Amino acid sequence: MSEQGLRWTGEGFGFEGRDQQGHVFGIDTDPQGVGAKPSDLVPISLAACTSWDVVNILRKQRQALEGLEVKITSEQEPEAPWAFTGIHLHFIITGDVDPAKAERAIELSESRYCSVAATLRPNVELSHSLEIVAG
Q1: Global pTM?
Q2: Torsion of CA 4, 128, 130, 108, to 10 degrees
């Protein structure tokens, strides 16, 4: 079991989130606010969870990984509650990395290791693409 927290800042719709290690981050629905929109954190969490696995797997395979970036596109229903219907992750991996190993690492994360993907998969269409950039 883990504990996280959320506290209203007292201003507008600003909140401070706290993760299980005690790190504090801003959450805000106001475009002029100081934090991320709550619904943006869902696809970002998927990308972060998957990326952690990909980096871990490629390091264990002794791939010369120099960088990893993920461009995220997501779709939501047009009416409240605006549920996510699809999230696409485009991985940009920099370095001398075998494309087949990178693809397999992404697939393993999405299908076996990433808790966020496992949570979303029953209701959200998850997809990915891969681009390798020589280091």
Answers
A1: 0.93
A2: 70
